[in-house]
Automatic annotation (TrEMBL):
This is ScbA protein. It comes from Streptomyces vietnamensis. Pfam families: AfsA. InterPro entries: AfsA-like, AfsA_hotdog_dom, HotDog_dom_sf. Residues 16-152, 183-293 form the A-factor biosynthesis hotdog domain.
Amino acid sequence: MDQNLRGATACVPGEFVHRADPADIIPTGWTQLTENRFSVSAHWPAAHPFFSPVAGDRHDPVLVAETIRQTTMLVAHAEFGVPVEDQFVMWGLHYTADAEALAVSGLSSDVTVDVICSDLDSRRGSLRNLRTTMVLTRDGRHLATGGTLARCTSALAYRRIRGERMAALDRPVPLIPGVAPELVGREHSKDVVLAPGTRPGQWRLRVNTAHPTLFRRPNDHVPGMVLLEAARQAVTAALGGRAYLPTDMAISFSRYVELDSPCWIETEILPGHDPEATTVRVTGLQDGEPVFLSTLTSPSRALAVAGAGLGTRLTG
């Protein structure tokens, strides 16, 4: 690794976080504290074409998930020597965020991420599996905790695993009509990742491979962040189409979601001990098999379903 990169600001290569557009790169620098502990500086955009504020004046909590995802890849590539051409798969991601600390105004857009890596599994000198645990702060104030379970697969091994599925890289995916943007908390149809289902509480995943943020590069399967966004949009639709602030989220993936077969998204509102909180379980199914499971929680009814004038996004 180029030692001049370590710890410097605004110098994170896009290939380290699998982002081509500089506007999508959240980490700005990193420092190794101990063998498996790192401090990562990050910057949250006050305005972004996709990660725009929700519930009127809160940063999109999915920014927490994206920060965790990019930070995990950054550390794996920059500090553990994972080649940038390797395939990076998140098998699980979770976070818990402070709703008040997500406020857009009154706080800096700079975020500090304390990262601990564990369960490191290397084969033939190459990192293959790792778990990350993170604490995010803004202006010295606790913002969120979270982590991932990730796997790194060499390009050769990935091609062998995926076999004929690799041909999906060159196949166009028809863009099916989506639901109305306002039903899923979006302003623009290009950002809608759900299409109507066959019954209430069910939607079909809408795959837009031309989306500049969700499909950052050609892929042979649906990226995990698309499925996370599908879960959030499904919850929004299930609760009446107004902004949902998922301050708690956990998602696990059981298999790849293929591009050429319908993926069905189903929701179930769960009972809880806190009558003010709203928790929804979201399940993804493809070819009759579960592909992901996610649970999202908003801390209060007021935040779960924002009132008129606060429930729409500021930008799409």
